[in-house]
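The passage that follows is intended for readers who have already worked through the single-chain material. We present the inputs for a multi-component assembly, then the predicted structure in tokenized form, and finally a short commentary. You are encouraged to pause after the input and sketch how you expect the pieces to fit together before reading on.
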Amino acid sequence: MNALRIGWRNLMRNRRRTGITALAVALTTAICIDTMAIMGGVRQQMVDAGTRLFVGDVQAHAPGFRADRSIYRALVDPARLLAAAQALGIDAAPRSYGFGLVSHGIKSAGASFIGVEPAAERRGFDLPKEVFLGTYLADVPAGSVVIGRKLAKSLAVEVGDDLVAVVQAADGSLGNELFSVVGILKIVGEELDRGAVLLHHADFERLFVSDGRIHEIALRAHTRTPAGVVAALLPAAGAAVLETWRELNPSLSDMDRLIDASVYVFVVIFLLAGSIGVTNTMLMATHDRVREFGVVKALGATPWRILRDVTLEGFVLGLSATALGTIVGLAGGAYLQEVGIDLSGLMEGTMTFSGVVWNPILIGVVRPSDVLATIACMWVACILASLYPAVKVARLNPVTAMTDV
Amino acid sequence: MPSSQRVSRCARLFCATLVLTAAAAAHAATDAKRILDRVDDLYRGDSAHGKMTMKVTTEHWSRELELEFWSKGTDKSLVRILAPLKEKGTTTLRVAENIWNYLPKTNRTIKVPSSMMGGSWMGSHFTNDDLVKESRMTSDYTFVVSFEGEREDRQVIELSLTPKPEAVVVWGKVVVEVEDKTVLPLRTRYFDEDLREVRVMTFSDTRTLGGRTLPTRLRIVPTDKPNEATEVIYDEIAYNVPLDDHTFSQQNLQR
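Having made your guess, compare it with the prediction:
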């Protein structure tokens, strides 16, 4: 511990220089923490928007359903999976899918019909809250539909209007029903906006003569990770395929990983900038004390000992600076988490990226692992930064050093 | 024979051969055109009215529909479902490239959007596009006789058709097989742009309807799903009946 105290004392010999360097390192640390918080928030928001609305964390389908979306490729034993999910406290929403035509007046368009259980959707997902006009589906079937915003626009349909649905029913007959539009969704994502017609599963059954077929169970975990949900439900899945949102939306997953990776690149750049300051300071500090080092070496100090002492000095600088930087960084992070940065002034209307709608307020997410990683990396950077000056001094010739001017 | 005489004799023989070959070729070409035109016009007339049964078999279900149809020229047709009860009264009207469906259950008429034209008509293996297309084989395709001889105990002529560059057809190639004597179609094979066979239409049960002798049973089998099929059996046809344009209007759809 003496070495640390000596290091500290040496640093204090030139307070101003130490202080400026410490400030630079502290600032770098704080910036790293806050940048990671902002980018973490961006990633979180992106993933949430892609999953909390409708997709969920995990989905179960019959094998091959995702490839052709055939109405005949239904889950074999959905009740078993639903029961297992309920027992584990995982929100589950069963859905049926079919394709057909909807028409209003002289306008018609292709539509993707989704039979849902409104109560389950309300419990586990955010889509029922994203109604722009009107209301979401009621818990009891009433011949009502909720449609996507862009579909409503292309059909020139308003809440209260009738919609004719014409489909190929599962028994081969022509499915043909009249529905009442009770709600129009907000802009939530390309697929839902353009073609979604949500209806109560009993109404879906009537239209498609689908014999109770369920094609998809979407699951939202609260305490488990998506992989954890898959593992927990695998025994009850039977032949059904369980996939996480990463497999269901690979482009979103790639985007998430890309942002994560690029943040680390930023952090490395910041750390380099901070460490150069430390190297410079240590060079100056050791240069001033060349005669001292000469004397110490003459008295028997090994090069290794000198290396250790100088590096330790750099470490102590890093230690105190990162402590300060972490406090500032966490304060900034707390602000970002609670308040965030409002960018809505910069955007006109809503922005969609990769099928997902962006919230213009950037909220930060501080991950403990990020903070600890930043601190550790900064320490390592300070130590490495001090190595060059340390080596220089450790190899001094005592005689020439002692008599240095 | 003196050489000059020999030369002129050869020349005459050569010219004669040329003329004969040309005549034969022209005759064959006219024959092929005649065959294709006949096949095209077999089910058409200035107007037609009749009844048919359509049986559709798919992997998951099979159904039988009774239909009544009217057609005028090459661009107007009306098809009404008579049975089964669930769809009775459902009517499809086609005028030029547009198709409307009337649905009695909801009492609504909907226009089929162009994005759905490739979709199946009434659940069969015919597409909406099939109903609308008015391609004429002789004007939209270039054709060659690809086979002439005996096949399955019958004398047949096979013609291979390739679409002309400016023709608006969905097929990459069509092969028409007709019986030599009667010039009635036996089989038509349809290929996509990659020249992969997509479906085969076979003609059978030749009878006389409305004064014409023609195959009354048409069967379409998609090549990738050989256990599925759509079969159309003509029960009655009357040709050149008087039909006014009002028959082919949206108002008449809801009758």
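Commentary: Chain A has a mean pLDDT of 90. Chain A is about 55% helix and 20% strand. How closely did your sketch match?
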